[in-house]
Amino acid sequence: MLFPTFEFLIFFVVVLLFTWMIYQHPKSHLIWLLIASYFFYGCWNWTYIPLLFGISSLAFIFAVLISKKNKNIWFGLGIIVFIVILAYFKYSGFILTIFPRSWIESAFGEKINFINPILPLGISFITFHAISLLFDIKRGKLNFTPTFIQVLLYISFFPQLIAGPILRASAFIPQLNILRSPHHLKITRGMILICLGLFKKVILANYLGTEIVDPVFNGVVENPNYFIAVYAYAVQIYCDFSGYTDIAIGCAFLLGYHFPLNFRNPYTASSIQDFWRRWHITLSSWLRDYLYIPMGGARKGFLFKLLFLMITMLIGGLWHGAGWQFIFWGAFHGLLLVINHIWVKITDKYSIQWNQSTIWKVISTILTFNLVCVGWIWFRAPNFDVAILIFHQSCIEVIQGKIFTNINYLTLLAIVLGIGTQFQTLSSRAKVERWLGKQAWLIQGAIFALIITLIEYFGPSGIAPFIYFQF
User: Which residues are catalytic, by number?
Assistant: First the structure.
């Protein structure tokens, strides 16, 4: 069940209406949202409902054990259990490809049949939520032991279940103890986010994906324009993923819950470090707080800081997918971060001020954006060899001055519009929200209905799954 579909609209309207019919009964409210979330997940594949329930149940058991005694032992065991679960479903097939077949047969026998398990939808986000719960209980950031129902809903809450944003247990679970009221909802803000997310996903991301990105990266088009396809994918993945989170945050608002910001105009970043403060913020902060800092962070000296950064980005790359192209993508960003930190250290040491000028910020923003786009080649390519081919052909097109050959001008317009969304500030969105908030409910409803109708009319036929569903 995808967000931009009629099926989800019916589902969400039913959930929304019944949620506010029983809002004065907190326990029934949580149970209803839990049933709705499991139904939402089951619409993809009912056979993985026990897996979702099992992971959530284990998270609750370990949370209770950590809060009572021997917290270090139970915490360590819990982390290992969830990492093993994630590794089995996501990386078992990839791990087997690393070793020669002769080694595997000599160890397990010639007749053994290795079948890579089907990747459950959202398994990475599910396990990351479970790990976050254990960390927050151990660190005392969640100063009470949540109930079984609260843990189940925290991990399975349907707006974020498939592709985030990644919620911290210490930030979300306390919201479950608050009696919500339909009279204090941020309805206008929620609807603005939903409409913006639909526009980015249905109009921009879907068009760029079907028109140029998928044909070029899958090698099914004659005389492809590799260079434009790379930048089209940069816009597609941003519009696709940020569009999903906009819709998720908007739906959460309408249900009375607050989700954290996940994107903050990442392509306007003036450095790669700044980029990761703006892109998939909940993942980058999760890796920082639960991986980079526990390893040592900056506490063990500058060289170890660089080492921990590289390790964190390698793991971040591998988290996105089991393939050498993702490992390269993580290593590429890790190297860029290392260079960035060395550069900052040098400029601080010699008090270089020119890098604070407006001209330098423009140059560094353009440079950062292009480096990120280069990295996206390996992120999107089906394998490492295809990534090398696309990078090579893109360079040839630049050298030969053929970057605009065989290109549809609607594609260029979609790319420009997608990049243009990067310059939409929170203050400008707040102005729109205030203006709409002053209008009568009937007028607001008509405006939002018109926007959604136009998006449906101009959007390509069919809705492609969100890119981050595979992670």
Answer: 320
